[in-house]
Design goal:
globular; eight-stranded mixed sheet; alpha/beta; 314 residues
Length: 314
């Protein structure tokens, strides 16, 4: 982030300032806007702690949704549950690394939501350099379809899924959510909503034309057509499931990108919200599930998606 800021030209800063002015005039949510009650999250070092899983939690690891070594997922489920909503979590790691059981990915989310009668699924997918982000999104869609088919085996409702991802994973679930027919063509059922945890890559085409971190070059290359194809903002063309974009107010580009995506979505009739947080990129992921106004705000969004979620979260 420091490297990105230091590399900004005067013109870039002017453009960003102009965007903020335009966003304010257009009524786009700024930090302190929608769900502003949650701007103070749990803070204590990198992560504020790890919760124990509720007694009786059933954990199934390394279930396969395909034949590849990375085509696996873990399930965290309440005991003897039936028809439970499912949080479908996709890890980050710059499209190049990361794991479904990595630190901050699933544990606190599972501890929180399993205790409320939800199921949490955490998925892996193939990585760069062998698999491009566009192909990774296809793998995530494939995983979604497979997990939905199997959900009833461990008490889940295949029609009550919420997509969630952090960082690169947030980009992937946002890309799927912006173009649902691509996932449905792989056998996925419609989902209730999406929560994107601190993606700065909603509009890859715009991102790549500004000073940016080298990891984006490794992920997206130099072809403008590819940039458009992997940009959730560019692929969004119609009404989609409700969408919550959590962004770190410590990363200027994250909230700017989230606001631009949600502005376009709102114009298409989508129920969409931005939740800015004064937390680091890692804390937004790892602290979700710990007792805080932040977790409560995400719960509030989820509770509005269906009566089953409302009954468990309110």
């Amino acid at each position: 982030m420091r490297a990105l800021k230091s590399g900004m030209s005067t013109m870039t800063k002017i453009l960003i300032a102009a965007f903020v002015v335009v966003a304010s005039a257009a009524g786009i949510a700024q930090p302190g806007g929608q769900r502003a009650r949650a701007t103070h999250g749990v803070r204590s070092g990198l992560f504020a702690g790890t919760l124990p899983l509720p007694p009786g939690t059933t954990v199934r690891r390394d279930l396969h949704y395909g034949g590849g070594v990375d085509e696996t997922y873990d399930v965290y489920a309440p005991p003897q549950t039936h028809g439970a909503p499912v949080v479908f979590m996709v890890h980050g790691g710059g499209w190049r690394r990361g794991d479904k059981d990595g630190r901050g990915v699933a544990r606190n989310k599972a501890a929180h939501w399993v205790s409320r009668g939800l199921i949490v699924v955490s998925v892996n997918y193939p990585m760069l350099p062998d698999t491009t982000p566009l192909q990774q999104a296809q793998y995530v869609a494939k995983a979604l379809a497979a997990v939905q088919r199997d959900a009833s085996q461990w008490g889940g409702d295949p029609r009550a899924f919420v997509l969630m991802g952090h960082s690169a994973g947030a980009h992937l679930v946002s890309l799927i959510s912006a173009d649902p027919p691509a996932a449905i063509a792989q056998g996925a059922l419609p989902w209730l909503g999406t929560v994107a945890l601190d993606s700065a890559a909603f509009d890859v085409a715009a991102l790549m034309r500004l000073p940016h971190l080298p990891l984006y070059d490794k992920a997206f290359g130099s072809d403008a057509k590819t940039w458009a194809a992997v940009s959730p903002t560019r692929q969004l063309r119609g009404k989609i499931a409700p969408f919550l974009a959590v962004c770190s107010s410590q990363r200027m580009e994250s909230c700017l990108q989230a606001n631009a995506f949600t502005a376009k979505a709102r114009g298409l009739g989508v129920r969409v919200e931005v939740l800015p947080q004064d937390l680091s990129h890692a804390e937004i992921n790892g602290n979700l599930g710990l007792p805080s106004a932040y977790t409560s705000a995400v719960d509030g969004f989820l509770a509005e998606l269906s009566p089953a979620l409302a009954a468990r979260l309110r």
